[in-house]
Each structure stands twice: as C-alpha cells, then as structure tokens.
C-alpha cells in the first residue's frame, strides 16, 4: 500500500512539474522583459538628469 501511494505521489509530482515548466518559462520571460524596461527607463531618467 505504501509503495502504491509513493508511486502515485511521484507520478503526480512529475505531471505537475511537466505542466508548470512552460508556464515558468513564460513567467521568466515576462520578468526579464519587465527588468529590461525598468533598466531602460532608469537610463533615460539618468541621461535626462545629466542633460538638465
């Protein structure tokens, strides 16, 4: 009985990780894009301040 429960748990874990991976990739891409946008905005603000 313990073996069966362990097998089902591992199978569920595998299935959940399989489903999560594309979502995680998308989230990472979104985070990276947001980070780049923030860096670009900060650089623009810095340039504007330097020019003032």
TrEMBL record:
Q: What is its main location?
A: endoplasmic reticulum
What family does the Swiss-Prot or TrEMBL record give for this protein? Belongs to the phospholamban family.
What protein name applies here?
Phospholamban
GO CC terms of this entry: mitochondrial membrane; sarcoplasmic reticulum membrane
Which GO terms of the molecular function aspect are on file?
A: ATPase inhibitor activity
User: Where is it located?
Assistant: Endoplasmic reticulum membrane; Mitochondrion membrane; Sarcoplasmic reticulum membrane
Q: What does this protein do?
A: Reversibly inhibits the activity of ATP2A2 in cardiac sarcoplasmic reticulum by decreasing the apparent affinity of the ATPase for Ca(2+). Modulates the contractility of the heart muscle in response to physiological stimuli via its effects on ATP2A2. Modulates calcium re-uptake during muscle relaxation and plays an important role in calcium homeostasis in the heart muscle. The degree of ATP2A2 inhibition depends on the oligomeric state of PLN.
One GO biological-process annotation of the entry reads: negative regulation of heart rate
The record, for Gene3D superfamilies, names: Phospholamban (1.20.5.290)
Matches recorded under NCBIfam families:
P_lamban
Q: How does it assemble?
A: Homopentamer.
What's its membrane topology? Answer: Single-pass membrane protein
Organism, per UniProt? Denticeps clupeoides
Species lineage: Eukaryota, Metazoa, Chordata, Craniata, Vertebrata
> Which InterPro entries did the record assign?
PLB
Q: Where are the transmembrane segments?
A: 31-49
Q: Which domain of life is it from?
A: Eukaryota
Name a Pfam family for this protein.
Phospholamban
Query: In this entry, which stretches build a coiled coil?
Result: none
């Amino acid at each position: 009985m313990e073996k069966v429960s362990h097998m089902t748990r591992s199978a569920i874990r595998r299935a959940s990780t399989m489903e999560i991976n594309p979502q995680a990739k998308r989230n990472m891409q979104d985070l990276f894009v947001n980070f780049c946008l923030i860096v670009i905005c900060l650089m623009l603000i810095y340039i504007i301040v330097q020019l003032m």
